[in-house]
Design goal:
This protein has helices at about 45-55, 65-80, 105-125, 130-150, 180-195, 200-235, 295-305, 305-315, and strands at about 10-15, 20-25, 245-250, 260-265, 270-275, 285-290, 315-320, 330-335, 345-355, 360-370. By secondary structure, it is an alpha+beta fold.
Length: about 375
């Protein structure tokens, strides 16, 4: 099945809700400024990382560090990797070429932990001789917690950057999950309420945070089991006539682990999309899409530097479309990643559009959003 192509001659529709959507346009190519930019890669939200940092700072190994200093050090470290997002708020393809991702690597953690620890020690106005090693340990805990949590999202973390673009991912958590706020936030609110009635021993705070981290581990484990249930449901509800299943993927839909976007790749180079309910075990159909890997136009695009990066990054490569060859041999092709689709929107972000020249070179490229065919 060859889905209709939405070429880069888009015109922007400003809806009443002011949500940018793309529709098919005719005539001249719209200027870049009018095209809706794709958002940068999104991992877990700042609130979740902050709450985790507070709990990590209260653990027993860091009991010798003044509480206020430990909390601020760990919170700063737990959010430090996301500082790179400030440089990619305008979208674009920076995340394809490594500018977005280095902060989520082991190399960055090794370099940032001593700097964060030193900065916290100097700001505390205390002797660094016995405090600095402990503060570095607090910073390491915050950085490690960030990388581990982001590794449980569909985006993953490039731990080996800049030496390898590979992203390590276990897609069990949605980037914005309210259950994480409840699990990590309620114990902190309870502790703050108890403190208003009197002092709380550090040992009690450490036990409370340890219990919260255990609850977090159990929740992540339950999400992994929910994903496997969604994958089995997708196989059980695979329609006839689409071929034999070769790969089964599942990604959490907004905003928690109850609904999953399932993608089954068949031997006919088709993606069969569905939306699985963990509670009922049912799967709602979400369409069939061509991978495009058998299309020579897509194959040529994937051999270019930009296309090769995108093909490495995409987990569910989808041919959004390709134009016919022009008189000089150039053409346009659009590639998407279906893992970013969900049941609540027909907009697919992070679609790579490329104009391939007559000598198979990339004359232009952009990352934008597109409308999935129904």
């Amino acid at each position: 099945m060859d889905p209709p192509f939405y070429p880069p001659t888009y015109r922007l529709i400003n809806a009443k809700r002011r949500k940018a959507r793309i529709t098919r346009g005719r005539g001249t190519v719209a200027s870049r400024g009018r095209l809706p930019a794709a958002a940068p890669l999104r991992s877990l939200d700042t609130l979740t990382h902050t709450l985790l940092g507070i709990h990590l700072s209260r653990l027993t190994p860091f009991r010798g560090v003044p509480e206020r200093v430990a909390v601020w050090t760990c919170v700063a470290a737990a959010n430090a990797p996301d500082l790179e997002m400030l440089g990619s708020l305008g979208g674009g393809t920076s995340w394809l070429f490594g500018q977005q991702g280095l902060n989520h690597s082991l190399l960055f953690a090794a370099l940032a932990a001593p700097l964060i620890g030193l900065g916290a020690g100097l700001s505390s106005r205390r002797s660094l001789r016995g405090l600095l090693p402990a503060l570095i340990g607090v910073a390491v805990a915050g950085l490690a917690g960030h990388l581990v949590l982001d590794g449980f999202t569909s985006v993953g973390v490039p731990l080996l950057a800049p030496f390898s673009p590979a992203r390590f991912s276990l897609p069990w958590l949605f980037p914005v999950d309210g259950w994480l706020w409840v699990i990590l936030g309620l114990p902190l609110l309870w502790g703050a309420w108890k403190r208003r009635r009197g002092p709380i021993p550090e040992r009690a705070l450490a036990r409370l945070s340890a219990a919260s981290l255990v609850a977090l581990s159990l929740y992540v484990t339950s999400c992994s089991l929910a994903r496997e249930r969604a994958r089995f449901a997708a196989l059980a509800h695979l329609p006839e006539g689409v071929g034999v299943a070769q790969e089964v993927l599942a990604f959490p839909a907004p905003y928690g682990p109850l609904i999953w976007t399932t993608l089954v790749r068949t031997d006919e180079q088709l993606w069969v999309r569905g939306f699985a309910s963990v509670l009922t075990g049912g799967v709602s159909p979400g369409g069939t899409f061509s991978t495009g890997r058998e299309d020579p136009r897509v194959q040529i695009a994937l051999e270019t530097e930009v296309g090769r990066r995108y093909g490495w990054y995409a987990q569910a490569l989808y041919r959004a479309g390709a134009t016919e060859l022009s008189d000089d041999g150039s053409y346009e092709v659009a590639l998407g990643d279906l893992r970013f689709s969900d049941p609540f929107s027909d907009t697919l972000p992070k679609v790579l559009w490329m104009r391939i020249g007559p000598h198979f070179e990339v004359e232009d490229h952009e990352v934008r959003s597109a409308i999935l065919p129904r």
